[in-house]
């Protein structure tokens, strides 16, 4: 080292600083590996949908009740009821599934004395039904 004209004290200090930086970066990496999932807050623009998850996209608007129960995102409307969001938004007299008495959310089913369905979309889809509502209607008729 002395042949290159480097001072060994400076080199030792640089090694210590490098080790400290490496240790700090390892600690920081451990903290950074914890996944942080950000969801929209309650005061964010958005509404809760059928499974009570908050979405920020377009939603339906019920002409009868005008409350949050009639505001469904396109995905929930299609999966749970087999309806298209764009068609529902075009109709000014569109009523939400709760107002029509066909809501299959856990709260409405419990009010009727029925057990909640849970997440049965995949099961209904595998059996060939268009939506959860179609599955529930056909299996209810069979009982």
From TrEMBL:
Subcellular location per the Swiss-Prot or TrEMBL entry? Cytoplasm; Nucleus
* Highest taxon of source: Eukaryota
One Pfam family from the record: zf-4CXXC_R1
Residue intervals of the Zinc-finger domain: 52-136
Task: Work out whether the entry's keyword set contains Iron.
Answer: no
The record's annotation in InterPro entries points to: CDCA7/CDA7L, Znf-4CXXC_R1
* Biological process annotations from GO: cell division; regulation of DNA-templated transcription
Q: Which portions of the sequence form the region Disordered? A: 33-57
Q: What is this protein called?
A: Cell division cycle-associated protein 7
